[in-house]
Amino acid sequence: MAVLHEKLQTIYEEVAQRNPGEKEFHQAVIEVLDSLGPVVDKHPDYADGAIIRRLCEPERQIIFRVPWADDSGTTQINRGFRVEFNSALGPFKGGLRFHPSVYLGIVKFLGFEQIFKNSLTGLPIGGGKGGSDFDPKGRSDAEVMRFCQSFMTELYRHIGEYTDVPAGDTGVGTREIGYLFGQYKRITNRYESGVLTGKGLTWGGSQVRTEATGYGTVFFLNEMLKAASDTVEGKRVVVSGSGNVAIYAIEQIHELGGIVVACSDSSGYIVDEKGIDVGLLKEIKEVQRGRIADYVEARAGAARFVEGGSVWEVPCDIAVPCATQNEINGDESGYLIKNGCRFVAEGANMPCSPDAIKNFADAGVIFAPGKAANAGGVATSALEMQQNASRDSWTFVDTEKRLEEIMRRIHNRVLSTAEEYGQPGNYVAGANIAGFIRVADAMLALGLV
Ligand code: NDP
């Protein structure tokens, strides 16, 4: 475990004791606290206002029953969550995750990270996160719809365009947002577009929202390479996952001249030395909702599938983890370092464990944490809220330009903050400190609330 500044150590112990068993939440908190020592020394007022202790305690946590009937008429019961973590900068904002692994500790880690990520965008959004242990995999459209309707039948009373604005995350895409929005509209009798983001383009969605997290991660990666006087062009890249973030990260890497040779899902990984065919991947994953192994069948011998293995064993110059938390641990970071990987940009939330991050730092691998690198998704959600509020819609080109500019700004702010606090080139410290200061200042200004 990291050695923390003595004031921060007490806060961490309190978090661990008040939130027993929530190991992902503890990990997210310690990662931020580990960066804040120099800030506490420079700004004793943050400690006096108990800003950090308050930040670690969500403003509100909601847990609810989600009953629904499957296609055979059997009653199913899931658990729903919404953790409204911090609204100092704006309405709570953050996605909903539907995955069997979801429990309060996962939602709290994601919500905590979201506070700093949203702050880094420079946009007026607070942090929150939600979801359910419902598994949409293998469920019919009708089952997913009934689940979403039941979920929203409770959630609707807690959200609103000025209160809390959920979006998608793992297991929640445009289909689920559609069913959720439909039920919200039905219950409230309000066409309140700004209550959810990630909507379809014909009913209030924003251009580029679907692509935003993946594209944004690669725009950030591009800035990292530029800062190191290098370029994405010609680089061999491995991306994990094959969901929303992964697909659009691959598309944008190819746009910049990099070659993504491997990607994965929870059943294994594929290697395609000529570069992943994104059109085919989209067809399999977005249209057919199939498995990654189907790609190999369609490529007739040009690609191979490795069942159950680690995609991080495939040699690469750049790694972009876009699947799930803690997918790169000590061993996986070891494979990457041994094979000469030089850059890692997190598309997923917290995919690298503390051990892996330390190994990267020791080996001189340039590493960017998700709260900075994948902030393009939520930034574009905030752009969707802006368009909804002004009853306007912007073109793809215009929105993409704004996203690229936001990612450049975040990158530069992270690096300049790292420099200011005596840790030049440290993206982890820069992101945590820059994200923290904006929220802390707002909390101080708003008084003890
Ligand atoms: P999706 O559900 O679209 O895709 C997730 C992908 O990761 C799937 O291919 C899934 O495979 C794979 N995966 C999940 N768990 C594992 C595992 N244990 N081992 C290997 N592969 C796994 O989710 P998103 O692409 O939306 O999200 C991915 C990550 O990015 C998450 O950490 C999310 O929090 C983060 N993120 C997402 C944003 C967004 O806008 N969507 C915004 C910011 C961050 P399978 O289908 O087999 O489960």
TrEMBL record:
Residues 206-447 form the Glutamate/phenylalanine/leucine/valine/L-tryptophan dehydrogenase C-terminal domain. NAD(+) binds at T213, N244. The active site is at K129. InterPro entries: Aminoacid_DH-like_N_sf, Glu/Leu/Phe/Val/Trp_DH, Glu/Leu/Phe/Val/Trp_DH_C, Glu/Leu/Phe/Val/Trp_DH_dimer, Glu/Leu/Phe/Val_DH_AS, Glu_DH, Glu_Leu_Phe_Val_DH, NAD(P)-bd_dom_sf. It comes from the Bacteria. GO terms for biological process: glutamate biosynthetic process. One of its GO terms (cellular component) is cytosol. It catalyses: L-glutamate + NADP(+) + H2O = 2-oxoglutarate + NH4(+) + NADPH + H(+). Pfam families: ELFV_dehydrog, ELFV_dehydrog_N. The record marks D169 as: Important for catalysis. GO terms for molecular function: glutamate dehydrogenase (NADP+) activity; nucleotide binding. Substrate binds at K93, Q114, K117, G168, S381. Keywords: NAD, Nucleotide-binding, Oxidoreductase. Homohexamer. Belongs to the Glu/Leu/Phe/Val dehydrogenases family. Catalyzes the reversible oxidative deamination of glutamate to alpha-ketoglutarate and ammonia. This is Glutamate dehydrogenase. It comes from Mycolicibacterium alvei.
